[in-house]
Specification:
This protein has nine helices and ten strands. By secondary structure, the chain is α/β, with parallel strands linked by helices. It has one domain: 2-enoyl-CoA Hydratase, Chain A, domain 1. Strands 1-2-3-5-7-10 form a six-stranded mixed beta sheet, with helices on both faces. Helix 1 packs parallel to helix 2 and helix 2 runs antiparallel to helix 8. The radius of gyration is 18 Å and the shape is globular.
């Protein structure tokens, strides 16, 4: 007798808005190969479904996404494909965050068209603290955010809050009630013509897709190389063992 595997992506629909929920709270919605594949498949369904006007990407549990699953990380090519699918989807993708976001999860936010988070949410590019770099997520992130602020947070791995995330361009807006923040956005999308939305999104994402076309191969190779180094192995082992890595001063 086999046990059914719980779905990793929850799906609901209301008035043309499809809500996709990262639903692996036991791993803080870490980006495993299975979760990345399931989300990519759900987005592909939305792209083909004429009944979907827009997509909301949200989560269960207190963390939107903890970054890569260090026990079952996705192949860099698969993660690049997921980020590009969000950017190129012919329908707006809206991120709804009521928890914390780390590392690769910030790439998901950067790929979305509109992003909103609760004021209590926190954010951090933690890659440098485990011996790697925020390589692949730079594809959607660097064209959309303040370069000076991103330099600080990339290099230090320090945590920042939702108002700061909005200031630097990672978020569209932050507020105590994220659903109230998003209500006029979703209403506006429901009143917009599907073809007009698709073409307008194409205008808005042209520069981001240029970054994918130009840099994806090099950044994917960089990510794969860094994850195979001794420094990364020490950093990931230290993280899993809840201790400081050998290089910490």
């Amino acid at each position: 007798m086999t046990t059914a595997t719980a779905p990793l992506i929850g799906r609901t629909r209301a008035r043309g808005v499809e809500t996709l929920s990262l639903d692996a709270p036991a791993t803080r919605n870490a980006l495993s190969s299975a979760l990345v594949g399931a989300l990519a498949g759900a987005l592909a369904d939305c792209a083909e479904d004429s009944g979907v006007r827009a997509v909301v990407l949200t989560h269960t549990g207190g963390t939107f996404c903890a970054g890569a699953d260090l026990r079952d990380p996705p192949h860099p090519d698969a993660f690049v494909g997921l980020l590009r699918r969000i950017v190129a989807l012919p329908k707006p993708v809206v991120a709804r965050v009521t928890g914390h976001v780390r590392a690769g999860g910030l790439g998901l936010l950067a790929a979305c068209d509109v992003t909103a988070a609760a004021t209590a949410s926190t954010f951090a590019f933690t890659e440098v603290r485990i011996g790697v770099a925020p390589a692949v997520i730079s594809l959607p992130l660097l064209p959309r955010t303040d370069p000076r602020a991103v330099a600080r947070y990339y290099l230090t791995g320090e945590r920042f809050d939702a108002p700061e995330a909005a200031r630097i361009g990672l978020l569209t807006a932050a507020g105590d009630d994220v659903d109230a923040v998003l209500a006029p956005v979703l209403e506006g999308l429901r009143r917009s013509a599907p073809q007009a939305l698709a073409e307008t999104k194409r205008l808005l994402t042209a520069r981001v897709l240029e970054a994918f076309d130009r840099d994806a191969a090099d950044l994917t190779a960089l990510s794969a190389r860094l994850f195979s180094t001794a420094e990364a192995r020490e950093g990931m082992t230290a993280f899993l063992e809840r201790r400081d890595p050998a290089w910490a001063l």
